[in-house]
Design goal:
17 helices; 751 residues; 7-stranded parallel beta sheet; alpha/beta; TIM Barrel; 33 strands; Immunoglobulin-like; 6-stranded antiparallel beta sheet
């Protein structure tokens, strides 16, 4: 470092004494408009020159790059954007303007000054006039510090804030949640490498692990970079201490993704260390932290701070005795830590040097662990959809209240509560005395007591087995039904049998098949168990087998099907007026898109075969409405009414082939024919020729099942062995499905 030097400016400028060679921007000497920004040549206070480049990656984002003359760019950019926004550059007597559709930057030529305006409102600007009565700057203008060899040591930028503004972020644990007025040093010591040979080596090793079956890698250690270390690209530890955790995570993430994509799997990376931009790669966790209640509160505050720009996990708690040795936490500390951990985006039972398994602790602790763990599993669809939102929008799953309620001034300093997604408020217990909880304005449901509450401060009873949770009304939160602890095949032989028969026929014919169920089966066997059995059998099949829930007559029923694990669901709003059917279907499609699910819809009235009025052509699907319906709802397939009906027909149906032809020509989604039981074979073949894609056969299948069972009972002495009777019914069931497959496969397609 150079000796301290004094800079003196005339006529109202400042002088200051600091360590190193400080310099700052003084006047614009030239500029060049660019397609996505502007480039400036700027003179500095010391009579040197610097270049400044403004680029707009998006309409509301700008990237500022400042380089002294002769200094090469270091390539430390941490964010990447898919594109760039178009920019317009203008000039008048006062300013040079660089604009997008929403963002405007104003630059004064002398002295240098930048002002930021968003949607016509001034957000901030450089603080160039903040100096004391003795003409000393209170803060450094926009500039840099050089060492004796001309290398950049530091850069400086000072922006003003309005008196009522707050400042958040950085991940600080033990300071106020609002960082305004604080001085924070962000120094990350974790490292990776810029050596391409080492990167290739790590990529190969990670790929090998992924192919062996490793699901997730956690990037850990690689810490304590010496400041004078020199890396492959020539940078020192002092220059790149914050960049290397990002490169480390990026290397491992991209290596994992390259293999996972070939396996048809999604990529997840856990990371302990990070810096700005690391939310692009790992889900970061809090590290090995004490489980004391005070420390849990500090971990949460730090997590919410860093969560404003990423996602993190809370977990890994230990305790220390008076000598600093790590010990098993007390029961209350353990319970409170797992409650907060399991109500976090990612969670695991983990600790250093001491065990963390629930059975290590008391029965009370075990019961509390089981209670909160069951709740987490019931919330999995909600957590998954929230994670998808985080992926798409960059909004953290575990978010400070101020992100959801920016207009509520009461939440600006609250760092001991958080929103888990948009619908669940979590208020962990850290208090020794009463537990006060703030509910933002609106209506809330106390999950434990199922009581409705209005916004404001409340005092919660502290129960060791409870973490206070509140559901935000009208935010579409859905919970799973209780999952079975164990499924024994012998309990559900009949449902397994009828599924196996259908799959066996498809395997014999080498064609795909759809196995579908209707919500009414829930009164016999819970639908989540049916979906589990069906999907398990589908995975084991040698041909593609789809599992589908049919005729969900309402939003809640359809969402229940999604929660119960069905990969495909039909929502049936056909009995509703057209607009209501559109609205219902569109809502289900939107919710299902979170899970990547396909939704079948119905338009037109497919009635009951025994009701002759239901066969009225006035109730058939309208071609123009079919076009509008599919466009507005985004449904994946469409069931239509063309003379078909459910159940047994009282008279032979006469399908409207011309209508099928017109609808097939007008819409792009696959068409579905319900009520296929009892339709003459020749009519079924014609619908195939006209482009019908899916055929629902239920009534005939139920009848065939009964006949097969009856025949097996009457025909053979099974010695009162029900299982043997089932096997006796297998062949006629397989033959029935085979016959239907051949009927609907006139071109004899096979895999």
């Amino acid at each position: 470092m150079g000796q301290a030097d004094t800079l003196t400016l005339e006529k109202g400028y400042c002088h200051f004494s600091t360590q190193g060679h400080k310099d700052f921007l003084n006047a614009i000497t030239a500029y060049e408009p660019e397609a996505h920004g502007v480039a400036f040549k700027v003179s500095t206070f010391r009579g040197n020159r610097a270049s400044v480049r403004i680029v707009f990656p998006e309409e509301t984002v700008f990237r500022f790059t400042m380089l002294p003359e002769g200094v090469a760019a270091c390539g430390n950019a941490v964010f990447s954007f898919p594109g760039k926004a178009q920019a317009q550059v203008l000039e008048d007597e006062s300013f040079i303007y660089a604009k997008t559709a929403r963002l405007e930057l104003r630059f004064r030529e002398l002295p240098w000054e930048m002002i930021v305006i968003l949607d016509g409102k001034e957000l901030t600007g450089e603080q160039i006039k903040d100096f004391n009565v003795d003409q000393r700057y209170k803060s450094l203008p926009c500039g840099f510090a050089l060492d004796d060899d001309g290398r950049v040591l530091h850069t400086y930028e000072t922006m003003y804030m309005h008196c009522d503004e707050s400042f958040y972020g950085f991940g600080e644990k033990f300071t106020d949640f609002n960082k305004r007025g604080q001085k924070i040093t962000v120094w990350q010591r974790d490292a990776a490498s810029t050596n391409p040979t080492l990167v290739d080596y790590m990529t190969q090793r990670v790929g090998t692990l992924m192919r062996m079956g490793v699901g997730v890698i956690k990037t850990d250690f690689s810490e304590e970079i010496p400041e004078d270390a020199v890396f492959y690209d020539g940078t020192t530890g002092a220059q790149s201490h914050n960049r290397y955790p990002l490169l480390y995570a990026k290397t491992i993430y991209e290596a994992s993704r390259a293999v996972k994509e070939t396996m048809g799997q999604k990529t997840l990376l856990w990371g302990r260390s990070g810096y700005l931009g690391s939310q692009n790669y790992p889900a970061n966790w809090a590290g090995d932290s004490s489980a004391s209640l005070n420390n849990l509160a500090s971990i949460l505050a730090g997590g919410l701070s860093i969560g404003i720009s990423g996602v993190f996990d809370i977990g890994g708690f230990y305790n220390c005795d008076y000598e600093g040795k790590r010990t098993v936490p007390e029961d209350e500390e353990y319970i409170r830590s797992v409650q907060m951990g399991l109500m976090s985006p990612l969670s695991r039972s983990h600790g250093q040097a001491t065990p963390r398994e629930p059975w290590i602790f008391s029965e009370t602790a075990q019961a509390a662990f089981l209670k909160i763990n069951k709740l987490r599993y019931r919330l999995l669809p909600y957590l998954y959809s929230t994670a998808y939102e985080t992926h798409n929008r960059g909004i953290p799953m575990m978010r400070a209240l101020l992100l959801e309620f920016p207009q509520d001034r009461n939440v600006r300093t609250i760092g001991t509560e958080y929103m888990l997604g948009e619908a669940v408020l979590v208020a962990p217990v850290f208090d020794q005395q009463e537990h006060a909880v703030y509910l933002p304005k609106g209506s809330w449901i106390d999950l434990e007591r199922e009581a409705r509450l209005d916004g404001g401060w409340i005092v919660k009873e502290k129960r060791i087995d409870e973490i206070p949770l509140f559901l935000r009304e009208n935010r579409g939160l859905f919970r799973l039904a209780e999952a079975p602890m164990h499924i024994a095949d012998e309990n559900f032989r009949e449902i397994t049998f009828v599924i196996q028969c259908a799959i066996a026929a498809a395997e014999n014919e080498r064609v795909p098949i759809i196995i579908q169920f209707y919500p009414g089966l829930d009164k016999y066997i819970p639908l989540n168990i049916i979906s589990y059995i069906a999907k398990d059998l589908a995975r084991k099949a040698s041909v593609p087998v789809a599992v589908h829930l049919d005729h969900s007559a309402g939003y809640e029923i359809a969402m229940s099907g999604i929660r119960d694990g069905f990969p495909s669901v039909m929502v049936d709003g056909s009995s509703l007026p057209f607009e209501e059917n559109v609205s219902l279907t569109a809502q289900v499609v939107k919710a299902a898109s979170v899970f990547g699910m396909d939704i079948e819809a119905e338009l037109g009235h497919v009635g009951i075969g025994q009701n002759l009025e239901d066969m009225n052509s006035n109730l058939f699907t309208n071609v123009d409405q079919a076009v509008e319906f599919t466009q507005r709802t985004g449904c994946g397939s469409l069931a239509i009414a063309v003379g078909n009906a459910h159940g047994d027909y009282t008279r032979e149906p006469n399908l409207d082939f011309e209508r099928i032809k017109e609808i097939r020509k007008a819409v792009s989604v696959p068409l579905v024919l319900h009520g296929c039981s009892g339709i003459p074979d020749e009519q079924m073949r014609e619908t195939v020729n006209l482009g019908m894609s899916k055929f629902n056969i239920a009534t005939e299948y139920f009848a065939a099942t009964y006949s097969a069972f009856d025949g097996a009972i009457q025909g053979i002495d099974h010695n009162r062995n029900g299982l043997a009777m089932l096997f006796g019914a297998r062949k006629p069931m397989v033959d029935f499905v085979t016959e239907k497959i051949r009927l609907l496969n006139p071109n004899k397609f096979s895999l």
